[in-house]
Amino acid sequence: MFLRSISAALVGCALLAAPVASQTAGRGPSTPEERKQALAYIHHFEADPLNPNLQPEKEWLTAWMIQVPDLHVKVCMLLNLPKGDKKDSQALFNAMFFSQITFVIENPDKQNDDLAQFEAGVEGALRTYEFLLKTKPKDRQPFLDDLLLRRDAGTLVQWVKDQPGTHGCMK
Question: Is 92 a domain residue?
């Protein structure tokens, strides 16, 4: 019901993965420097998710996550992404993905806690949604507004847990 196809975002990841897949053989675990770089890039994105100059950083993050064998993020589309503005949809997808990356970097002992990963992803998407509303207040999305209310009421974790697709998402 709430799950939507990943569409362009997933296709983009898949296209990025194709040339990278052959490079992952023999790749060692992520280094502390790479994790620090990843977090810096994610902070740049969070500060300005629509900044076109961040494209190389977003591409590096995606390729890096595909390559490193020690960090794993499940991609799960729990949100109804805006239909009108593809940039907003892509920004929200990136926010989910990057927030999950942040979570696994900062909580290596919880890397297999899918629920916590998904919650971190939804929280990140909601922060980006709030950022987008500051620039375009008329672009409200009732579904995302409801999730903001759930977050503020402390019921967002239960909502994430109740989504049927959280058990069958891609890794």
Answer: yes
Amino acid 170: pLDDT: 46
Q: Is residue 1 part of a domain?
A: no
Instruction: Identify the three-state secondary structure at position 161.
Output: helix
Q: Residues 6 or more apart from 133 whose CB is under 8 A from it?
A: 139, 140
Q: Is residue 109 part of a domain?
A: yes
- The number of folded domains in the chain is 1
**pTM greater than the 0.70 cutoff:** yes
Query: How far, in Å, CA of 72 to CA of 75, rounded?
Result: 10
Look at residue 163 and tell me whether its pLDDT is greater than 90. no
Tell me if 139 is assigned to some domain. Answer: yes
What is the percentage of the chain residues whose pLDDT exceeds 70? 74
| Neighbour-count burial for 140-166, b at 16+ CB within 10 Å, e otherwise | ebeebeebbebbeeeebbebbeebeeb
Domain residue limits at 146: 7-167
